[in-house]
């Protein structure tokens, strides 16, 4: 089943858009090849509120969030993960509202850094974020007329979580599942095996609508996630095919596999190929000298 992406989306900058009963979406004006039209923040509740993913440290986005909050009490601020387009504004929103910050934990890589390895993704990570409340898998947070269930979904980052609005069929899927694009899985912050396992975990749920961190809703979650999984398996097959055809470096593989992709994304594509190769080496399908690395040389195992 091929995945079908939906890029039709109106960010409605500067406004709060009702996307479900007692759920508002506010999109930050931080468009890029990685964020689509910008980061979606969500305000949940009627009288006492929760906020999910305050977004980047941006004055205008903060003012739009505060306008949507409209003087009401904010009891909880949830953060899905610690990339700079999702979490930095949380500290300022906490200052303005007094609400505690809830997340899986501070930023960390999915695996330990190897000797001499420098994390190329530190520039995109919010290394200052520390939650007031650490959320475990399946934790329930009760608010005024709403309950949010945390579902841990490592893959895009090690500390990625999604949030279900219990009893509604709504899941705030952050960067794990998005209608407009696949999620970037880039070592050492992310891990492909973790990402696929988290997809499988979400496939066991019966969510009816996913509201992601970028772009519009995922209206048929199970069908879409099966398509995402097929897409990843096809990418894995393409990498194996390139290695069997004689490609030995990630640069060669990216040039062939991503030839129709925006060149600005080729760096991220290389890290995505590395994520697949880490998994393929662990499964014994590909071999390399030492640990898999962005500048490594790869060969078929047989």
For the largest beta-sheet, the strand count, sense and barrel status come to: 7 strands, mixed
C-alpha Rg, in Å? Answer: 19 Å
Q: Output the strand order for the largest sheet.
A: 1-2-3-4-5-6-7
H/E element order: EEEEHEHEEEEEEHEHHHEE
What's the CATH architecture name of the largest domain?
A: 4-Layer Sandwich
DSSP, total strands: 14
Compute the number of structural domains: 2
Distance between the termini: 29 Å
CATH fold-type name of the largest domain: Metallo-beta-lactamase, Chain A
Mean pLDDT: 95
What is the number of helical segments per DSSP (H or I, 4+ residues)? 6
**What's the CATH C level of the largest domain?**
Alpha Beta
What is the 3D shape? elongated
Q: CATH-wise, what's the superfamily of the largest domain?
A: Ribonuclease Z/Hydroxyacylglutathione hydrolase-like
Low-pLDDT residue intervals, each spanning 5 or more residues = none
């Amino acid at each position: 089943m091929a995945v079908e992406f939906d890029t039709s989306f109106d960010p409605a900058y500067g406004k709060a858009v009702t996307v479900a009963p007692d759920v508002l979406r506010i999109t930050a004006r931080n468009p890029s090849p990685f964020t689509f039209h910008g980061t979606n923040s969500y305000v949940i509740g009627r009288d006492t509120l929760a906020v999910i993913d305050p977004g980047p440290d941006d004055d205008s986005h903060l003012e739009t969030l505060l306008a949507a909050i409209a003087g009401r009490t904010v009891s909880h601020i949830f953060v899905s993960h610690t990339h700079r387009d999702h979490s930095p504004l949380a500290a300022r929103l906490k200052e303005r509202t007094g609400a505690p910050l809830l997340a899986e934990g501070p930023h960390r890589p999915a695996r330990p850094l190897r000797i001499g390895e420098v994390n190329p993704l530190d520039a995109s990570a919010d290394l200052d974020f520390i939650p007031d409340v650490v959320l475990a898998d399946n934790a329930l947070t009760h608010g005024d007329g709403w309950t949010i269930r945390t579902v841990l979904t490592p893959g895009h980052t090690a500390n990625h979580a999604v949030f279900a609005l219990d009893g509604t069929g709504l899941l705030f899927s952050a960067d794990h599942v998005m209608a407009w694009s696949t999620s970037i899985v880039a070592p050492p912050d992310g891990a492909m095996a973790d990402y696929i396992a988290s997809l499988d975990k979400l496939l066991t749920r019966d969510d009816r609508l996913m509201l992601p961190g970028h772009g519009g809703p995922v209206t048929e979650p199970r069908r879409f996630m099966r398509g995402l999984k097929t897409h990843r398996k096809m990418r894995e097959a393409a990498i194996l095919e390139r290695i069997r055809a004689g490609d030995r470096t990630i640069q060669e593989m990216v040039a062939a596999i991503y030839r129709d992709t925006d060149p600005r994304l080729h760096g991220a594509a290389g890290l995505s190929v590395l994520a697949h190769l880490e998994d393929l080496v662990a499964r014994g399908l590909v071999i390399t000298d030492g640990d898999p690395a962005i500048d490594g040389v790869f060969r078929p195992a047989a």
